[in-house]
Amino acid sequence: MAGLLALMLLVESRRDVRIAGDELVPLHEQDRGGWDRALIAEGHDLVRECLRANRPGQYQLLAAINAVHTDATAHADTDWGQIATLYDQLYAVSPTPVVALNRAIAVAELDGPEVALAEVDRLQLTTYHAWHATRADLLRRLGRSADAREAYDAAVAATDNDAERAYLTRRRGSLART
Fold first, then answer.
1. CA angle, 30 as apex, 3 and 16 as ends, to 5°?
2. What is the spatial distance between Cα 34 and Cα 15, in angstroms, rounded to a whole number?
3. What is the count of structural domains for the chain?
């Protein structure tokens, strides 16, 4: 239970900066000064307690991943190696394609978008909007604007969340015309 509580506290700590107007604000664009430091401290304490007390399970590992994100003072300071390692551990207890997708995002930061795209393309998640959104971002980073545009279109079509749709539409609109 402590792992789930830690996860909930760390996710809640970022709630106020996750949406701006009617658009999703992704983690790398969030104003970290708007994060609730008291909730983060409480979540970090619980994560440390969980990791000391037992072999971590799914919620403890998800909380630990969130703790690494909330520990970084800026997106550029994120310890992507630690996040990838935690996703490896999470995959060992919960071997789902969504966990593999999230790990691929860390891989993109460590090894580049081409390596991550190869991992993403092996996943059977073609009906999942986050798979399309991840592909779109990786393709954008590789300069493949036409392919990224198609992936953004698929992501927009696959989500029912208006804030996500607004963000994805804006990202699609920022692509270079080719």
1. 65
2. 9
3. 2
Give the model confidence (pLDDT) of 39-87 as tens digits.
Answer: 999 999 999 998 888 778 999 999 999 999 999 999 999 999 999 999 9
The tokens of 86 are what?
């935690």
Same domain, 17 and 79: yes
Question: Which of 45, 61, 95 marks a domain boundary?
Answer: 95
| Per-residue pLDDT tens digits for 83-136 | 999 999 999 999 999 999 999 999 999 999 999 999 999 999 999 999 999 999
Whether 73 is covered by a domain: the verdict is yes
- E strand intervals along 10-148: 19-20, 23-24
Residue 51 confidence (pLDDT): 84
Q: pTM above the 0.90 mark? A: yes
Of 67, 95, 123, the domain-final residue:
95
Distance CA 64, CA 51 (A): 9
Kindly state whether residues 77 and 10 are assigned to the same domain. yes
Q: Which amino acid is at 93?
A: V
